[in-house]
Amino acid sequence: SSGINAEYGYCAGAIIGKGGETIKGMADKADCDLKISKNDERFPTTSERVISIQGSQAALEEVVLFVQDKIRKDTPPPNARTESHAVNAKRKEACKLIVSDTSAGRIIGKGGQRVKELKDDYNIVINITRKEEMPRGFEERCVSVEGDATNVDQCVKEIIKIVAKSRQTHDQDALPLLLCWSDHRQGWGDHQGNGR
């Protein structure tokens, strides 16, 4: 069993659903456990909230693709500032995963070879936060995959596979996290990150 955490903000309503129906339905369908961070809880160095997903590799993939679909269909409200629309469009091109330092090392590979292969194979951009950018004692890193939606999805499946394999050999390895859309600082949420 592996895990993921997913971040959300403005499109939280679409992901959670009325009374939590959508997210509960997704958990049942994928046969996994989902936990959602509180509205004011953000992953360090991002403005993004987190959904924690615990389940099989197949469940992780299914939930990641489900959340990515919601992010891609997200639209800012009519009263959002013009720059918010640009930020929203740019965010739709990315999928963000949080992985342990160990998994990040495996994704990067010796001399950066693995990450170069991923970039070349899927024609996408991958950015991984450096360890020194994270708070002291924090043992996780953000992996952002950007590009064409189909290529991003295929690359993310490969990364989940790498992380799952890493977890099998390192029991203490932290769960990956999927980061989703956040309204915080994007022009239509209040200072607590509440949209609408």
The biggest beta sheet, please? 7 strands, antiparallel
Count of helical regions:
7
The termini sit apart by 37 Å
Count the beta strands.
7
Percent range of helical residues: 40-55%
Helix vs. strand class = alpha+beta
| Chain-averaged pLDDT | 78
Ranges with pLDDT <50 over ≥5 residues? 183-196
Please compute the radius of gyration using only Cα atoms. Answer: 16 Å
- Percent strand equals 15-25%
Question: Which H/E pattern describes the elements?
Answer: EHHEEHHEHHEEHE
Verbal overview:
- With 196 residues, this protein is α+β, with helices and mostly antiparallel strands.
- 41% of the residues lie in helices and 18% in strands.
- It contains seven helices and seven strands; from the N terminus they run E-H-H-E-E-H-H-E-H-H-E-E-H-E.
- Strands 1, 2, 3, 4, 5, 6 and 7 form a seven-stranded antiparallel β-sheet that branches.
